Amino acid sequence: MTRQDIVNQITKKQTFLCVGLDTDIKKVPAHLLNDEDPIFAFNKAIIDATAQYCIAYKPNLAFYESMGVKGWISFEKTIKYLKQNYPEQFIIADAKRGDIGNTSAMYARSFFEELDIDSVTVAPYMGEDSVSPFLTYEGKWVILLALTSNKGSHDFQLTADAKGERLFEKVLRTSQTWATADQLMYVVGATQGQLFEDIRRIAPDHFLLVPGIGAQGGSLEEVCRYGMNSQCGLIVNSSRAIIYASNGTDFAERAAEAARKVADEMKVMLEKYCK
Amino acid sequence: MTRQDIVNQITKKQTFLCVGLDTDIKKVPAHLLNDEDPIFAFNKAIIDATAQYCIAYKPNLAFYESMGVKGWISFEKTIKYLKQNYPEQFIIADAKRGDIGNTSAMYARSFFEELDIDSVTVAPYMGEDSVSPFLTYEGKWVILLALTSNKGSHDFQLTADAKGERLFEKVLRTSQTWATADQLMYVVGATQGQLFEDIRRIAPDHFLLVPGIGAQGGSLEEVCRYGMNSQCGLIVNSSRAIIYASNGTDFAERAAEAARKVADEMKVMLEKYCK
Question: Which residues are CB-neighbours of A235 under 8 A, at least 6 positions away?
Answer without folding.
Answer: A6, A16, A18, A55, A56, A90, A185, A207, A208, A209, A210
